[in-house]
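Q: For a teaching handout, I want to show students what a protein-ligand complex looks like in token form. Below are the inputs, and the small molecule is pyridoxal-5'-phosphate. Please produce the holo structure.
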Amino acid sequence: MKINTNFANIAENYLFSTVASKLAAYQKEHPGRQVIKLSVGDVTRPLAPVVIAAMHRAVEDLAHAETFKGYGPDRYCYGYTELIDAIRANYARKGVEVKREEVFVSDGAKSDLGNLLDLFAQDNVVLVPDPVYPAYVDANIMAGRKILYADANLGNGFLPLPEAGVHADLIYICSPNNPTGAVYDRAGLKAWVDYAIREHALILFDAAYEYFISDDLPRSIFEIEGARECAVEICSFSKTAGFTGVRCGYTVVPDTLSFGGVLLGRMWARRQATKFNGASYIPQMGAAAVFSEEGEREIRANIAYYKNNARIIGDCLDALGIWYTGGKNSPYIWLKCPNGKKSWEFFDELLEKANVVGTPGSGFGKGGEGFFRLTAFSTEENTREACRRITEYLKA
Ligand code: PLP
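A: Here is the structure, written as tokens, with pyridoxal-5'-phosphate included.
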């Protein structure tokens, strides 16, 4: 037996373990100090009541022979039509028409982002932005693919556009972006769609944070003309509705997507039928309730709570004259470390002097050096206190 030696090429992910060990060491030395974490990328608000009620009903279904469910319906790759139709209705509200056969329910975006790679040859060239959500890079390194980086920087507002003369086969776009919080407008996404069509490439569009968009910006790649010929969209209930622990997501593969005469949706259905037995019934029923009128109202209240935290952080940085992007249509605030500091240098100072923890930008790629990520997922009280401490420290 020979192991997959590509694993040796994956960089150790020191980012979150180093953040955790520095924090633990600081707390050991200063046991009385209350450190506030604005580094957490996980939701903290409880699930919407309508989702809880739907999941209770689903549990009850499983308690009785007449309503019991085993494996999900294989017609739609184990997705229940209640959920698939709720997803389609949600797309319709964005002016996007999606067919039942095009919606593939999953246990979350990360699984699909990794599993979709089964469909593509190893010698495809992959293009990812830098800085980047690390899972895109590591999943492709595991498969032995060559990766190109599109520089996201101050000059382009952390929204890189296609470069002439650069060819790629698979393109990752995450908008609103993790870690930078930057969001593409229609012209930006159209440039990528046109590029992908020209290069016969496929866009993997990660829409995990679409519900944080409140400005007039595209929430789906399929709002862009031509996207049905060159894109799949990977979505999640994790940040939309607090499902990080519950687990449910979906991927839309248009039936118009064909490469080398092969329909991608058919390949994906085959792949899922072979290696996946569907998302659990209970989360699927909870997820269907998310897109009901009541569900939409309740999840928007949670998102408004996080966005208010983002506004508090943004106001604090504005008052301090610190450059940042994100926060307005995203739970992430990506700031330029003050006084030309490097990411880890600023991390150490913020921890020591303000007892606030964020995430060093350099951990998301070379292009993140000198930047820092704060998140809006804490409580309002802690967010206000963290901002007070940051202001006090930076003004001192
Ligand atoms: N995509 C991005 C950009 C993320 O930031 C995350 C989680 O933080 C995911 C995907 C994973 O989502 P899920 O919980 O649905 O697997």
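A: Two things your students might notice: The chain is about 40% helix and 15% strand. The chain has a mean pLDDT of 96.
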